[in-house]
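Need residues for this backbone.
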C-alpha cells in the first residue's frame, strides 16, 4: 500500500494538470474555456469598423410578419445609417461606444406615399430601431439586432 500512495499522488497531479488545460479557473473560481472558437470571436465587442461601409440585408425577421415581396436593408455610412423596408427611407445617426453598444439617434423618415401595409411596416421598423434596450451583436459575418418584441439577422447584401 505504501508503494501505491506515491503513484496515486502522481496520477492525481497529472489528471489535475489535464483538467486545467481544458479550462482555466478564473479569480471567481469558475471554469473558463480558453479555446479560440467562433463563439469567443462572436463575443468580441462590436466596433464602428464592423459596420462602416457595409450594406446588410435581413435574412431573418422574428416577431413581425413582413409584407410579401419586401425585405430590410441597412447601409452604414460615415455617421448615418439608411434603412429601407419596402417604401420609405429611414435614417439615423449612429455610433458605437467602447463596450460595443450601438446608438441610433435623430431618426427621420421620407414621406413617400405607399400602400398602408408598407407604411405600417416602415413605422414598425422605425419604432423598433428607435426603441430602448436593443442589443447589437455579431454572429460570424451576421449582425443580430434584438429587441423585446422582435429581432433581425442581417448579412452582407449583394
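Answer:
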Amino acid at each position: 500500500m505504501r508503494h501505491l500512495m506515491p503513484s496515486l499522488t502522481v496520477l492525481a497531479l497529472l489528471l489535475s494538470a489535464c483538467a486545467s488545460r481544458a479550462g482555466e479557473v478564473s479569480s471567481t473560481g469558475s471554469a473558463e474555456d480558453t479555446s479560440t472558437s467562433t463563439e469567443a470571436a462572436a463575443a468580441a465587442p462590436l466596433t464602428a469598423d464592423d459596420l462602416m461601409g457595409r450594406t446588410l440585408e435581413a435574412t431573418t425577421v422574428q416577431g413581425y410578419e413582413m409584407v410579401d415581396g419586401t425585405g430590410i436593408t441597412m447601409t452604414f455610412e460615415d455617421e448615418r445609417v439608411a434603412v429601407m423596408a419596402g417604401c420609405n427611407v429611414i435614417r439615423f445617426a449612429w455610433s458605437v461606444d467602447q463596450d460595443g453598444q450601438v446608438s441610433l439617434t435623430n431618426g427621420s423618415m421620407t414621406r413617400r406615399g405607399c400602400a398602408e401595409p408598407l407604411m405600417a411596416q416602415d413605422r414598425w421598423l422605425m419604432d423598433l430601431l428607435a426603441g430602448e434596450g436593443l442589443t447589437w451583436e455579431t454572429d460570424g459575418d451576421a449582425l443580430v439586432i434584438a429587441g423585446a418584441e422582435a429581432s433581425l439577422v442581417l448579412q452582407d447584401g449583394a
